[in-house]
Amino acid sequence: MIEPELFNFKPPLNKHVYVQKQWDKLLENIDECGLTHSISVVLPDTIFIPNYIENIFPENGQYYLIKNVTLYSLIDPGFITSFVKNGNVYAISLNTHIDAEDCISITYSNLLQMSLIQSSSQNICLPVKDSKITLDLKELKFSSKSYQRIKESFERFQTKFDMLVCWESNNDDICPSSIASYFNKNGFECQECIPRSATNRKYNMTIPTGIDDFGLLDTWLSYFSLDINM
Hints:
The chain has helices at about 25-30, 50-55, 75-85, 120, 145-155, 180-185, 215-225; strands at about 65-70, 85-95, 105, 110-115, 135, 160-170, 190-195. It is α+β, with helices and mostly antiparallel strands. The protein has a domain at about 60-195. It starts with about 20 loop residues before the first helix and ends in a 5-residue tail after the last helix. About 15% of the residues are buried.
């Protein structure tokens, strides 16, 4: 017989920071999270959504779905020279689950971050820290021995990823869609995507304050964001 109390695990405590009208600071912190695909904003006791939230997406905010991306394609000299050296690349793997599957992203400052399962990380000749492998794409030197070792291990890596990609060029005269054109010319299937938002209003709800139990607040926010009845 299984003891029920053995499965009475408390959820890990997350650090919640309460701020007021500091959206720029919040968005900067979000940029540091490499696998952020969607953002939920909860506004208690609010009738009208502020304009600075409704208009958060820029007019030219297109990004691209690139299918069957290989690890090596992200360190290919053509990709690094054309995009990493001339702007900021942002990318995340789509429909991958952290701790259960291989996940990759390119975050701010052109850092390639890989959250790999153990069997995959053992085949990558890079140090693992906090279950992640981080590679600074800007610092790659194509003629170095270290690059050749990384290249060989990435070429052996069999997993392919569907990735959401966008690029901010350092030159305003160069169209951000150039990155989609690059992948298309190299045989990858590309699809243009547009950011979208949805509004969900709930009434007569009791919201936990989080003062005494952060775990309860975290659970409530998760349920609310997923539109699960509480």
